[in-house]
Amino acid sequence: MDMNSFSPMMPTSPLSMINQIKFEDEPDVKDLFITVDEPESHVTTIETFITYRIITKTSRGEFDSSEFEVRRRYQDFLWLKGKLEEAHPTLIIPPLPEKFIVKGMVERFNEDFIETRRKALHKFLNRIADHPTLTFNEDFKVFLTAQAWELSSHKKQGPGLLSRMGQTVRAVASSMRGVKSRPEEFMEMNTFIEMFSQKVNLIDKISQRIYKEEREYFDEMKEYGPIYILWSASEDDLVDILKDVSSCIDRCCKATEKRMAGLSEALLPVVHEYVLYSEMLMGVMKRRDQIQAELESRLEALTYKKADTDLLTEEIGKLEDKVECANNALKADWERWKLNMQNDLKSAFTDVAEENIHYYEQVSQTEEYLINLDSDLFLREDLDNNF
Predict the structure, then answer these.
(1) What pLDDT, on a 0 to 100 scale, did the predictor assign at position 373?
(2) pTM
(3) 29-158: which CATH architecture?
(4) Structure-model confidence comparison of residues 74 and 25, the more confident one
(5) Residues near 375 by beta carbon (within 8 Å), at least 6 away in sequence
(6) Residue 93 gets which letter from DSSP?
(7) Alpha carbons 323 and 296: distance in angstroms, whole number
(8) For the structural domain made of 184-386, what CATH number should be given?
(9) Which of 174, 190, 327, 339 would staple 290 via disulfide (CB 3.0–4.6 Å)?
(10) What is the SS3 assignment for 31?
(11) Where in the chain is the domain with CATH 3.30.1520.10?
(12) What CA dihedral angle connects 377, 380, 381 and 382, to 10 degrees?
């Protein structure tokens, strides 16, 4: 908070100053709320695409209103992600969901796919809104507030084709050259990313396989309940018991379905998001290395006097500042990301564990009930034989 903005008549007691400092440092004060909902299909002569409604509510002074409503398509989200990476090359930008399902498991315009994407886009925007730096990005503000024609006009104001090509050529040249001496802390960071990528990809594959097997088990179990009902129609002496067995199977089906919902909502999206994060992190490290490689090339040119010395010295000074800013930004964001990652994965696995415990409790109760049914049946048969 800017102390100069307060009126001279406002009390400045030690207690009030402490409260002001607490308010300034409070990370949980949320002033930007974003909702992504109401997917809508659009069909043109050229293409078919989905747009999503985005509602933004805020109390920030830099916004012209307290509430905005716009519609955006997936390409607009891609544009925003690109602009954030361009403005903050070594900050960890939240990942977007893939444009297509690679394995062909779901149709592109299938309702489940659209809903899964909507949730991922909702999380993408809210992660940006919660980020201490990205949330104040001007392109992010335009994305949330501008109408479609205004956004199109804003996109055209970016760097021209030749400028973008020049940036791409320099980036490729830097990546081909590589860095001579990456700082030790970034070497450790890179090793962590490689290990994390391997592990989270493995967890993702295992989780997907568990869900698939659970789905197959559920589909097979659903067929048994009706069979026992049909059987009961031809067994007068076993009608009640067979119906009870069918009821038990039905309870197991419902418990299994709830368990599957827990996997698909609590675990699978979180794990897959961090698979995408691991790819994003590799990109961040490449961009950091490109900035350092550009500095090293200028230092090499100065050593061999391949260009104007004064001009090179000025460029080197700017690049040194750029490298320092890039390194500091990545180090700060890295710790924040690791904490979020640990909390997210811990919460996801804890939720699934609790759901599994509840599931096995229900199944155990059902098994006990079936055992008692068997006992009753044997007792009844024994009595019939004795008489």
Answers:
(1) 62
(2) 0.79
(3) 2-Layer Sandwich (3.30)
(4) 74
(5) none
(6) P
(7) 11
(8) 1.20.1270.60
(9) 174
(10) coil
(11) 29-158
(12) 120
